[in-house]
Amino acid sequence: MEAEFWLKKWEKNEIGFHMSEANPLLIKYLDKLKLEKSSRVFIPLCGKTLDIAWLVSKGFSVVGAELSTQAIKQLFSELGLTPQISQVAKLQLYQAKNLNIFVGDIFDLTAEMLGSVAAIYDRAALVALPESMRISYASHLRQITHSAPQLLITFTYDQTLKNGPPFSISQAEIEQHYSTYYQIEQLETIKVQGGLKGNVEANEVVWFLNKKS
Q: At 44, which CATH number?
């Protein structure tokens, strides 16, 4: 979506997409990434997800990218942390122990700025973007992370009944974006209890993307 769309969501506190606990699917499938302790995990379009605190509590270092300054101020406040804030090119960098968040347009984030990451956890980025942006996003994500392995969570539902975000993303589209670079494994498909946005039948799909050798 356009940047203004998400900024207004945060300004109006319209964040029904924000979960009140760490994502059970992250907890269940994190081991697929085979991470060593202190590994850096990148969360694109991270918001103030509680997955960040959970990953840090497990000994990992989290680096995120987020458009909304308000979301990141809330994140650090809720974690009880006072960030060091610096300017890195067009982005602001909020830093605390084992936590680095780049605030601004993710397309302004470079591989050099991001640094080495062991894995990507995409629970809210690909599904937040309209089809016209997903091709550019997937390509940019691969470039800045050097195709680090991904734990990816998407939704499938009848897009004619409800427009996104979150958007419905088919297996064919996942393969279109990633099959050249990754071995793609579908880990689980779960019916969304109560439907998506309360009234549309939907499935949540968990993917493991492992870089091809």
A: 3.40.50.150
